[in-house]
Each structure stands twice: as C-alpha cells, then as structure tokens.
C-alpha cells in the first residue's frame, strides 16, 4: 500500500532549456543543468540525480529534442533513506512533472513502467514495486501488484487495526551500497541454475517468477524444486560457471552487473527460498483479506512475522536495529511486525489493534527512541500510524 506521506514538487515551465532545482530542506543543495545534457552520476547518488532519472526517462520515451525547461521546488514528508521509497517517489514525481510540462500524456501503468526503468540510471536494479504503487495506489485500499503485464488488484484490509511505521534511524541508500544489487544478482543466478536444471533456455531467464511460469507449477512446488536443485552453501563464481557450462569471462561480461564484478560468492538457495516463500505469503495475505475470517488479524500478523524472519535469515537484509525494533513492537502489542523497503536499515511496519494504538506508540517511543539521543532528535517524524494513501496527482493552479 502507499502511505500517506509524500513528495511534492512545485513546477514552473520556463522558456529557457534549463532545469533549476531547489529543496525546502537546506541540507539539499540547489542544482541546475541543461535539459539537453542530462548527466547522472552513479558514484555519488545526490538528491537531484533522482529527479534527473525521471526527467530523462520521459525525455527518452518521447524522443524530446527540445524539452521544456523548469523551475522546481521540492518538499516532502517521507524520511530519506528509510526504506519508505523516498527515492522512487522522487523519480515518479519528476517523471510526472516532466510529462505535464511538455504537454504529453501517459497512462498510470505506462508512467510506472518508465519510472521503473529510468531509476536504473542511478545504478539501482529495482523491480518496479515502488514505482507501481506510487501511481496505482488508491485511498483506503492496499494493492496486489503483479507484473508482465503490470496490474493492480484491490486488497481490502480488515478493520480493527492500524499500520504503524517506525524508523530504525539507520539510513540505507540503495544506490550508494552494493547490498541491494548483490541480492538482485543472486536471484538472477538462482534463476539461471534452476532453469538449466529443468531444461529451460536459461540464457533468456532473468527472474525467479519466469521459472515458475515456464514450468507451470505452484509456489509450493517451486520451493520443493529449490530444495532439490540448489544447496545451502554459498556458490563460488567457478561453481556457477561449471553449472552453466560457461567461462569465468562469460559470467562477468554477460551476466554479472558492472557494480558487483568483485563479488566472489553468492547465496542462491537462501535467496530463491525467500522469494518464493514471500510470494506465497503475499497471496495468502490477499486470500485472508478476501475471505475475512474472524481471526483475520491474527493470521495476517503471523504472515508479517514470518516475512521478517525470512528477510532476516534467508534474504539477510535486516540489521540489529531493525530486529530490535520489531521485537519492541511485538512486545508492546503489535499483532505482526516486519522490516519494510530494501532493508539494511530504514523502517518497520507493524499491524496494531486500534484500541491499543495510543499506548503502543507511547511505549515504543519510550523503549526505542528515548533511550538514544540521535533517535530522540528525530522522534516526531520516526513513528506514526498511517492508512492506505492515494497515488500520484497533479494540482494545477486555477
């Protein structure tokens, strides 16, 4: 679901072919550049580069030779580097602003797909979930996002509980570290080994979902196949080459992305097992919401708890602070709690009974934030209840 917090850009089209960016937060420096010479620095992911990703994506989609210049002022209430997709929200907002300023139109699905691709200009191998919900979200309902083709299905959440976001105050910038991209590559390598073992055209297979689709089996059956084909011990690059029948040079030039060329071992079993089990939990979550049994909240909470355990142990994208925060949230009444976003820092999301919300917030503040000076300083923006919010909008001056 999309949270209620957002990124806002006030934009003014101008006659000059220059984009000037300013931020209401003085810690983010002003920036300007020619719209005909977009340069995105992957080695130093500063805030304006995310705007340029969205700008460049729209320019390239339409082949704009003389794009409109803009003066833009950015504001927002999404904590940065917190796992709440502030960077993707900025890319999407920039794409929408550029689209409007140049008098072009696209569907929400087309915008989501373009912004997913364009965020990769900064070096993050994202899958598209954040961008999709940024455009396809509707107020009051969660969404089941599916791809190929991109589509969103309403998921009506049961009453009686609120979702609470808690920031661990450990910042993690996906584009500035290799953790995220290594996980993407481990999933891709697992895809290729699973495909090869089942006689599929492994060179064309990129996603674990592709293997399931080609084989026409259930997620539970895929988990069995993972157990049969992959081993829990890390794979060396040499072993991967042997399994695929390729040279080390071919592995590096044709499969591994540029920013993880130095990685020598990969955990394929754990990553594949997490992805397939997490997908099964998502579908089970939707099923419970649809059937709405009397114990729906307890069942959904258990799925959230299982998800965090898998993130921590199989995908290894948690951190001690997130684990501590999840434990505190469960201790003080959350039915379920898990990390959200890419991980390695950022936020947790907890499902809390509405009648316990006030006391829950008070106790979590006391136990996690008020015991640490740095956390205490950002306490007001670090812990809040939220509801499913709406997707991106354009407000036009009357």
Automatic annotation (TrEMBL):
Protein name per UniProt: N-acetylgalactosamine kinase isoform X4
UniProt xrefs under PANTHER family: GALACTOKINASE-RELATED, MEVALONATE KINASE/GALACTOKINASE
Keywords linked to the UniProt accession: ATP-binding, Kinase, Nucleotide-binding, Transferase
PROSITE patterns membership: GHMP_KINASES_ATP (PS00627)
Gene3D superfamilies in UniProt: 1.20.1440.340, 3.30.230.10, 3.30.70.3170
Origin: domain of life: Eukaryota
Keyword Nucleotide-binding: yes
GO terms classed as biological process: galactose metabolic process
Pfam short name (any one): GHMP_kinases_N
Signal peptide span: none
One Gene Ontology MF term: ATP binding
The keyword Nucleotide-binding is assigned to this record: yes
GHMP kinase C-terminal domain span: 294-357
Domain GHMP kinase N-terminal: 49-136
GO CC, one annotated term: cytosol
Protein family per UniProt: Belongs to the GHMP kinase family. GalK subfamily.
Gene from which this protein is expressed: GALK2
